[in-house]
Design brief:
Aspartate Aminotransferase, domain 2, 7-stranded mixed β-sheet, 4-stranded mixed β-sheet, about 40% helix
Length: about 500
């Protein structure tokens, strides 16, 4: 097994969560109102004219003006026209450090030439899609199987969401059980059944607008990092027909926004074996970012099914897939495959653009390059440097912000929006929690606005991904930009 991981030292999850508890108990620290107004007037209105014009036009024909959930930047989303390694460029020619990295898939950096040239070659010959078998769907599957010990077989999907949906169906066919348990606050795509308990632990159905409640009959959540809560739910499900699968993000929900202890994943594995549930590792973010062996390799866990996304298409569309042991992957046999000497019911799945040559080609050469150049570790080293520098800046300005990282997945919590939880045993507290999270989310967008104006693109102002394209000098330059923002932070004035 490849032991080159991006995480040099795993954080103390209990200590980080204690800091987050203290953060949400304190007044909100945010960008000063006069400074925010100056950013709006001097940067966005004067230096982002083309972006604003395009956004204004788009709002007439696109709901909300943008197509992507991560492009909700305050005061308006910027239009980006160029991506190159560690940098992004907007329509007005402004240059930014890219800590969004397309939401996590670009471990090599954005638009790497070595992958791009292979994609050009494929487009000049085969084209992006045929609907038929192509050599790169085999090459990509083989690369993933060779890299991740528990993946005997791999089936490509169109997205991480589709892969999660498929995992549910496979788990139910394999176990004969219906119930699904997921970690509260975790995001496993936007399908109906898994749109439960997202963003805020304990939120249940409250964030799943448009989904009939009866669809959650067989879906439950457990509190992040709480093995006792998970076992209670597993034990209860024994009276309700058993548990088909337990879904987890290995570093914690929302890519580690609520950190979990190092031994948590081992504990989940033990409970899955005890109660006959399949362990499903959602490695959409961590797969090939934590390391070539995935987070499961780092934590020493053997999940039954692994969900992949993002990096497996190298930042190109069609990034999703499900891998696992042969005894479970047989439920995904396609074509004329009869799975051996007896027929079985196959999980219903498909997609016109699934495993298209373009995505598989990009994914294969991306993983080859990550492996060859030790990109995961390099990105992790840059994540460590960024985290250390941010912690120093937080101390310099005596701010309550909480900073930690899991290798190249870096967290900068200024308001702790996603650290809240809902306690249904105390329903009178729920309105207050929802109100607090809403207020803090607004201030998070204001901080994101300030970062962007100083040349920093982040994920919602609270998460930052580093890539192998970064150098120590770049990280230090980016920290100087954060310094300018932190110098203008103060307690939010009373309304």
């Amino acid at each position: 097994m490849d032991t080159r991981f991006s995480i040099a030292e795993y954080h103390d999850a209990a200590a980080v969560n204690k800091e987050l508890d203290e953060l949400i108990a304190k007044p909100i620290y945010t960008i000063k109102p006069d400074v925010l107004k100056k950013y709006e007037e001097e940067y966005y209105e004067k230096k982002c004219v083309k972006s604003k014009e395009l956004y204004t036009q788009a709002r007439e024909i696109i709901p909300g003006g943008v197509q992507h959930n991560l492009a909700f930047n305050y005061p308006f989303p910027l239009a980006f026209t160029k991506a190159d390694g560690a940098y992004l460029y907007d329509a007005d020619g402004n240059k930014y450090f890219d800590f969004l990295q397309a939401g996590g898939p670009t471990v090599l950096g954005s638009n790497p030439k070595v992958v791009r040239e292979q994609v050009f070659d494929l487009l000049n010959t085969c084209g992006p899609s045929t609907g038929l078998f192509h050599e790169f769907e085999y090459k990509l599957a083989k690369k993933i199987s060779d890299s991740v010990e528990t993946v005997d077989m791999f089936r490509m999907q169109g997205s991480g969401t589709e892969a999660c949906m498929t995992a549910v169906r496979v788990a139910r066919l394999a176990t004969g059980n219906k119930n699904i348990l997921k970690m509260g606050g975790a995001y496993h795509g936007w399908s109906d059944q898994l749109g439960y308990g997202i963003r805020v632990p304990g939120s249940k159905f409250t964030q799943a607008h448009g989904v009939p409640l009866y669809l959650f009959k067989h879906t439950q959540e457990f509190f992040p990092g709480d093995l006792d809560d998970l076992e209670r739910k597993l034990r209860l499900n024994q009276l309700r027909g058993g548990t088909a699968a337990v879904f987890i993000e290995p570093v914690g929900p929302e890519s580690g926004t609520t950190p979990v202890p190092y031994d948590f994943n081992k504990g989940v594995e033990r409970l899955c074996r005890k109660y006959g549930a399949l362990l499903v590792f959602d490695e959409v973010v961590t797969g090939f970012r934590i390391g070539m062996a995935g987070a499961q390799g780092y934590f020493g866990v053997s999940p039954d099914l692994t969900i992949f996304g993002k990096v497996i298409a190298g930042g190109y569309p069609g990034a999703g897939g499900l891998g696992g042991k042969k005894e479970y992957m047989k439920y995904l046999g396609a074509g004329l495959d009869s799975t051996g000497d007896k027929k079985i019911h196959k999980a219903f799945t498909g997609g016109t653009m699934t495993a298209n040559p373009l995505s598989c080609c990009a994914g294969y050469y991306t993983l080859e390059e990550i492996d060859k150049t030790n990109a995961c570790q390099k990105a992790g080293q840059m994540g460590d440097r960024l985290t250390k520098g941010l912690k120093e800046l937080v101390g310099k300005y005596n701010l309550p912000f909480v900073v930690w990282n899991e290798g190249s997945i870096c967290h900068l919590e200024t308001v702790g929006t996603m650290h809240y939880s809902i306690n249904w045993k105390k329903p009178w507290t729920i309105p207050g929690v929802l109100s607090a999270t809403s207020e803090r989310k607004t201030e998070m967008t204001h901080m994101g606005c300030a970062y962007m104006a100083e040349g920093l693109v982040t994920l919602a102002g609270s998460r930052l991904y580093t890539s192998a394209a970064y150098t120590p000098k770049m990280i230090d330059q980016a920290l100087a930009c954060f310094d300018k923002v932190f110098a203008n932070v103060a307690i939010k004035p009373e309304a």
